[in-house]
Amino acid sequence: MSVVEGHDLGARLGVQSAADVLDGAERAVHAGSLFGAHVWPTGLSPLDTHLSGGIRAGELVLLGGTQGLGKTTFALQVARNIAAAGGHALYVCYEHDVELLLERLLTLEAGLVAPDSSLTISGIRRSLGAHDGVSGIGLAERLDAFDGGRKALESLRGYADRLHLFAARGDVTTLAHVRSAVDALRPLRPAVFLDYVQKVALDADVDDDTRLSRVATGAKDLALDANVPVFAVAALDGRGLETRRARTHHLRGATTLAYEADVILMLNNKFDVVARHHLVYDTARADRFRDWVVCTIEKNRNGEDHLDLEFRQRFAQSRYEAHGGMVVEELLDERLHRD
C-alpha cells in the first residue's frame, strides 16, 4: 500500500495526523471561527468559570444530589439559560409532564423580572386550571393577577421555540428515541438533558447494573456522535439517601457513571454539610444555610475539580440565584471517591 493509499484509508476511518489537525486550527483561526469543542454556558457563575466556559460538545455531565434538593430545578434552569442566550436545548424528562415544566419556567421568569413576585406553581394552577366558564381571557390576562406574571410570559415566549421539551416514559423511552429527537434537531445542535439517567428505558431484560452501564455508555456515545453535551440528572442509591453528604460513589451505578462522565456535579444542602462549629457558634447565620445549596465539582476533565460552590435557592420561584460564590466555611471532611 502506498503512502497516499494509506492516507486515504486513514481519512475514511477518521484518522488524522497532528499536522492535519494543526492545519485545520490554522484555517479556523484565520477565518475567525472557533477551534475546538463548542461550549454552552450554563449561565451560573462561578460554575462556568471553573468548567472552562460551560458544558462542552461531546461530553457527559452528571448532576447528582439528595432528594428534594432541586436537581430538576437546576438542570431545567441550565437548559433555560442556554435557550435564552440563543442556543437550543432538548429537555428529556422522565419525572414530570411538560405542563409542570412550563409552570416551573413561568415561575422562574417571574422571579427574574420581579424578585418579590407572588407567582407560584400553585397560583398558576389555580389561575390557568380553573374551570370558570369564562372565555376570551388568555394566558397574559390570567397571569396579570401576579407580580411579573405578564412579563414572565413575554420572557418565556422569547426563547420558547429554542427550548424543546420531551415527556419521556421509563417503560418506553429508550436512548434510541432520544437519539431520534436529537437527529431531528441536529441542525440546531441542542444541548441534551436527561432527567434522569436511571429511568432511561432499555430494550433488554437485564439487571440494573448492566442496564445502567449500557445507558451511561449510550449517553456518552450520543454526546460524541451528535457533538453536543449530554447533561444527565442522576439518582442516589440507598446509602446516598441516608448519608449527610452525597458524593459520587453514592449514585446508583456509580462505577460506570463516574467512568463515563466528563464532569460530575453533586448538590447538597449547605446546612447539612457545613462543619458543626459553624452551626454552634453562629446560630442566626446557621439558619440561613438552609437556603443555600453546595454544588461540588467532583470531576472535571477540563479544569479544576474538588471545588465547593454555593448557590442560593429560590424554590418558591423554581430557580437558583444565577450568581453564586465559593464556599468559605469548612465542610464535612469526607473522603472524595476517586476512580
Quick recap of the structure?
The chain is α/β, with parallel strands linked by helices and 339 residues long. It has helices spanning 3-12, 18-30, 47-50, 71-84, 98-113, 121-128, 139-143, 149-159, 175-184, 208-226, 238-242, 254-260, 270-273, 276-280, 283-288; strands at 39-40, 55-56, 60-65, 89-93, 163-167, 191-195, 230-233, 263-269, 292-300, 307-314, 319-320, 325-326. Strands 3, 4, 5, 6, 7, 8, 9, 10, 11 and 12 form a 10-stranded mixed beta sheet that branches. A two-stranded antiparallel sheet has the order 1-2.
Q: Topology of this structure?
A:
Blueprint: H1 3-12, H2 18-30, E1 39-40, H3 47-50, E2 55-56, E3 60-65, H4 71-84, E4 89-93, H5 98-113, H6 121-128, H7 139-143, H8 149-159, E5 163-167, H9 175-184, E6 191-195, H10 208-226, E7 230-233, H11 238-242, H12 254-260, E8 263-269, H13 270-273, H14 276-280, H15 283-288, E9 292-300, E10 307-314, E11 319-320, E12 325-326
Parallel strand pairs: 3-7, 3-8, 4-5, 4-6, 6-7
Antiparallel strand pairs: 1-2, 8-9, 9-10, 10-11, 10-12
Helix pairs in contact: 4-5, 5-8, 9-10
What are its keywords?
339 residues, alpha/beta, Rossmann fold, ten-stranded mixed sheet, two-stranded antiparallel sheet, 15 helices, 12 strands, globular, disordered C terminus
